[in-house]
Amino acid sequence: MKLVTPIPDAVPVLIAGGGPVGLATAVELRHHGVECLVVEPRASVSWLRPRAKTTSARSMELLRRWGLAETLRERAPLPVSWSQEALFVTSLLGREVARIDACFGLDLAGSDLAAEPGQQAPQPLVEEVLREAVGDALLTGWRVTGLSEDADGVTVRVTPEGGGEEREIRARYVVGCDGPRSVTRAAIGSRYEGRQDERPNFNIVFRAPGLAERMPHGPAVHYWVLNPAQPGLVGRLDLKDTWWCIAQGVRAEDADPVRLVRNLAGDDVEVEILATDPWTARMQLADRYASERVFLAGDAAHQNPPYGGHGFNTGVGDAVNIGWKLAAVLNGWAPAGLLATYETERRPIAADTIEAAARNMATLAPELADPALMGDAAEFERVRPAVAEAVLRTKDSEFHSLDLVLGYTYAGSSVVAPDAGERLSHRWLAPGDSLYDRLGPAFTLVGDSTLPEAVAVQAEARALGVPLRVAHLPDHPLTLVRPDQHVAARAPFPADPLHLALAH
């Protein structure tokens, strides 16, 4: 029997919205021993609208930090070893035009570049794993409907999803992870800036028994169908018979889901439609991320097209950034001024991500589909090299984006040293022994701990009451690492590096 989470009168942090970003924020706070409450209207996770399917290598590193990466991999329907390729075809049962390998960081197992490779996993599975980790901090069946902020905290109004009496909860801080129609964004007077793409899209989740066995192309994480009559994108949700597809350029009022799937397959295959979801891509960024006590994360703060798989992964980065900073303030080892760096660090990352995803969206299956591909064998072979070249030229960055996924930096932030801010360079110390596994939940000093500079940092941590783990690795450059695995400073350190890193 599922235990019902009681509604408290007060909580240190209230999180509006229990999608993957809200749940990740809660997991991060609990990682630091901070109590929180996630308010989420959905009682259960729906598998019929999987939305995001790619958990990036960076998000998997953060899941590893929480002890959840292996759990997600064990339960993912598609093993990371199953495929790392994207195939471009005339139809699922037709001819192959081109293929791209090493997609989405799925090839990084054992690489020094990352502690974890990417993982293909439907968003509902990610949410379920995070829900289990959050436990009784998740309040379902309720929705945040308003809030008012004062000097000492935030009064949050919550209402039962099916209707009923409104309740009030007092919180010291609120994190708004309540999506595009965010109540928290409206409450702090923030608004989206950006645009909406004009082209319609139509998502379908379907079951097609025996389709996989008929396909001549082999496994792929994406199949791009370059048929001018029905261009689109198809992938598997499991290794049984469940699939997803995006029919590009299709309006809901014109959609015949069975016919769309059969057009993409290239034959009148057996189809059972499980769910449909019309949508248009948005490139939107909140003009401000925060007030004094309310912070926006995930879709409440930014939206980008799905091409490249950056959506909720960017939100997980938000969750960790605001989560550790709130914990530092609430646990008494950082001043409230540290929280102002959340927006200055994360908003530029979201802007870069929106720009990259929009570039990926500039060339989709309709733009790559040449009518000659659908001709006889001679006509196909005549045009295929040119189309394949266009595929590789325009889509490479969509599938190979580790510079964005692993390489984003907080350089220039007021709480990192001038030569710092990037994610700590990863390496394996021994098989299965990641440098990241030596890092603590708060700050970590990596390198020769007997050096005078290292001794001084340890003394500074004791004086400030800052949790500091020492990873004594004499062959590693002396480095001060933040809770989010980004470099705060490297030797020679500036004066009082922890004072700098915590906005003292």
Description:
This protein is of the alpha+beta class. The chain folds into three domains: 10-50 and 122-195 and 283-359, FAD/NAD(P)-binding domain (3-Layer(bba) Sandwich), CATH 3.50.50.60; 77-116 and 198-276 and 370-401, D-Amino Acid Oxidase, Chain A, domain 2 (2-Layer Sandwich); 428-501, Glutaredoxin (3-Layer(aba) Sandwich), CATH 3.40.30. Helix content is 29%, strand content 24%. It has helices spanning 20-31, 57-65, 69-75, 123-134, 183-187, 211-214, 257-265, 311-330, 341-361, 365-368, 377-399, 402-405, 452-464, 497-501, and strands spanning 10-16, 36-40, 54-55, 86-89, 96-100, 119-120, 138-140, 142-150, 153-160, 167-176, 192-196, 201-207, 222-225, 232-236, 242-248, 272-279, 282-286, 294-296, 302-303, 428-430, 433-434, 443-447, 468-472, 479-481, 487-490. Helix 1 runs parallel beside helix 4 (123-134), helix 1 (20-31) runs parallel beside helix 8 and helix 8 packs antiparallel against helix 9. The longest helix has 23 residues, at 377-399. The relative contact order is 0.14. The mean pLDDT is 96. Its cofactor is FAD. Keywords: FAD, Flavoprotein. Residues 11-356 form the FAD-binding domain.
Break the fold down into its secondary structure elements and pairings.
Layout: E1 10-16, H1 20-31, E2 36-40, E3 54-55, H2 57-65, H3 69-75, E4 86-89, E5 96-100, E6 119-120, H4 123-134, E7 138-140, E8 142-150, E9 153-160, E10 167-176, H5 183-187, E11 192-196, E12 201-207, H6 211-214, E13 222-225, E14 232-236, E15 242-248, H7 257-265, E16 272-279, E17 282-286, E18 294-296, E19 302-303, H8 311-330, H9 341-361, H10 365-368, H11 377-399, H12 402-405, E20 428-430, E21 433-434, E22 443-447, H13 452-464, E23 468-472, E24 479-481, E25 487-490, H14 497-501
Cofactor: FAD
InterPro entries: FAD-bd, FAD/NAD-bd_sf, RIFMO-like
Pfam family, one: FAD_binding_3
